[in-house]
Amino acid sequence: MPELPEVETFVRALRRPLVGRAIVGLRNDWPRHIAQPAPDELAARIAGRRIEAIDRRGKYLVFTLSDDETLVIHLKMSGHLSVVPGDAPPDPYAHTVFLLDDGRELRFRDPRKFGRVYLLRDPDGVLGPLGPEPLADNFSAEALAAALAGRRRVLKPLLLDQTFIAGIGNIYADEALFDAGLLPTRHSHTLTPDEVAALHAAIRKVLALGIEREGASISTYVKADGEKGDMQNAVAVFRRTGQSCYVCGGPIERIVLGGRSTHYCPNCQR
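Structure (tokenized):
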């Protein structure tokens, strides 16, 4: 699933071709792609709306449209967005396509069909439950400590909880915990103030690196232009089971926590 850095990479790539353009039509061959409203209502309400801004909230892309409408897209497992000429060859996996006033198309390609599209007058209905943005200025070590206060949860599943922190997924949770020197099985209430500070710094570090490297093309993710990101060449532990740790030389191990593969170094993480 695209995580915060991958979604941010899409946002930055789509701003130039899309901001200022108007949406003039919609094609959809998988109605379940449209979470709300119904596809016919979406097509009617979105026609003529101009794209005024494109931002990100957690793993969601947020398109601010004219007339107080907000288009929200979650890529889920295999979603991909690209702007292509109107006469580009048909893509059988582009289940939702937004037609633009310059003749091009914004295609939402989604082979696994888990992605979702929302058109909202109040985006807080979808985005409101999300936790803080980990790269925002107000996400400080003190804010993380306050969020952890009173919690008694295993660290890895907690980091994946989007109501706790928005945007972290499996890749960057593993990488942040390694960078902070914390075992993924540690309980949140056992962290010292120094460990909380280390985790805060590690979260921001690995997410910033993921954005700098334009995402991790480990499974299906590619950028809007179809090229691979480069974060997969910078991971320390994720999907490196049995390989040597770059710090201590010991083998990277894999366990399952909360149903998710988890990678760590038993020597470097405590």
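The longest strand covers residues 51-57. The radius of gyration is 20 Å.
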